[in-house]
Specification:
383 residues; alpha/beta; Rossmann fold; 2 domains; 6-stranded mixed beta sheet; 4-stranded antiparallel beta sheet
């Protein structure tokens, strides 16, 4: 008996592996835009869930969430059509979530912020154990290339992780041609987002990288550039995970009570920072690129403890602390981190360091203080 098309089988196999650890009866949602990547993922997830019902021993439920960003005319119709296709595949529940794209950081970042917030909200309402995203190896290569162009650090160059919290990306080992081919083999007609075409000069940056830059690199450097970039992300992620763990340990050791009046949100008697260290584990894994920390969370750190750490660990910890204090992670750059580090290593009584998001950092009484920007009185400064 002839089996399924190779590309269909590859996508199904990827989904099977991604949900292998989920418990019996778990609900899995597919974030589906109607494009070839997420549509192939939706079809494969529906198949895997149906197979679990027929064969057991563990049963999975599969649904979908369609996010309507409301950025293009007719977006509601596209979302409704995509939801209808998902229901035809056998997915249930299928939730259409309309969002408002108004976060800072540019249109692409704002849309991403709204999308992830919507996915998190729907997962919470439905009790989903996992939300599957359709990012492919090509998306990973684009992410690494954009990070290189921005001069980003290892965490950004590590790209998108296969799993983070409720989010999972089963298709990072497959190419976009695989998902397009899977849709064709299954007779599915994906929706092609016009903003994904990078031919126009005003197209989104990622679309231009996809349409122009990566094909140029493949032509000039030879085939395999996308795979090489994805491998680089995998290798850097291992390094970044280790550094993040060391930075989290450092922040725990350096944490001190927050002085009254530093935290713009907490009461004067609050007496300290949150029980978990700034950034905990998730923030240090780069969630700050997708969402902004709650504003007004003051952080106080012991200068001596920070100075005793290796520079790479210390600066990574400083970045996480700044995000914990309210800095949007996407706007916090190396210059900001170096300015924070100078408060430790080149201290000569300088004033507060302004940071993105209305946050400021200062040094007083042997502590590094990060919180909502406010006047700093001379008597609090070290001499």
């Amino acid at each position: 008996m002839t089996g399924p098309d190779r590309r269909v089988a590859d996508v199904r196999r990827a989904v099977t592996g991604a949900v292998a650890d989920l418990p019996d009866g778990a609900l899995v949602l597919v974030a589906c835009s109607g494009g070839p990547d997420s549509l192939a993922l939706a079809a494969a997830t529906a198949f895997v869930a149906d197979r679990s019902v027929r064969r057991g021993p563990r049963v999975l439920r599969a649904g979908a969430v369609v996010v309507d960003h409301a950025l293009q005319p007719g977006s509601a119709d596209v979302a409704a059509g995509t939801a209808a296709v998902c229901r035809t595949l056998g997915l249930d529940p299928v939730v259409v979530e309309r969002v408002v794209v108004d976060a800072p950081g540019g249109p692409e970042a704002a849309a991403r912020h709204a999308r992830y917030a919507a996915l998190d909200a729907v997962a919470g309402r439905t009790g989903a154990a996992a939300v599957l995203l359709g990012h492919t190896l090509d998306d990973q290569a684009e992410t690494v290339l954009l990070g290189l162009a921005r001069g980003s650090g290892a965490r950004s160059l590590a790209g998108m992780p296969p799993a983070r919290g409720v989010l999972r990306r089963p298709l990072l080992g497959l190419r976009r041609t695989d998902t397009v081919g899977a849709c064709a083999a299954l007779g599915l007609e994906p929706w092609h987002d016009p903003t994904n075409a990078g031919t126009a000069d005003d197209a989104p940056l990622r679309s231009r990288v996809r349409d122009r830059v990566l094909p140029l690199l493949e032509r000039e450097l030879g085939p395999g550039v996308a795979q090489a970039l994805a491998r680089t992300a995998d290798q850097l992620r291992e390094d970044a995970d280790t550094l993040d763990g060391l930075a989290a340990t450092l922040l725990t050791a350096a944490a001190t009570p927050t002085p009254a009046g530093v935290d713009g949100e907490a009461s004067a008697g609050d007496g300290g920072i949150a029980a978990s260290p700034p950034g905990g584990g998730r923030m240090l894994e780069g969630v700050a690129r997708e969402r902004t920390a709650d504003p007004g969370t003051a952080v106080a750190l012991d200068v001596g403890v920070l100075l005793g750490a290796d520079v790479a660990v210390r600066r990574r910890a400083l970045r996480a602390a700044a995000v914990q204090a309210g800095c949007p992670g996407g706007t916090l750059n190396r210059g900001h981190v170096l300015a924070l580090d100078a408060l430790l290593t080149d201290w000569h009584g300088q004033g507060p360091v302004p940071l993105p998001g209305g946050v400021a950092a200062s040094r007083a009484c042997g502590r590094l203080l990060l919180g909502p920007a406010q006047p700093v009185h001379d008597e609090r400064q070290e001499r």
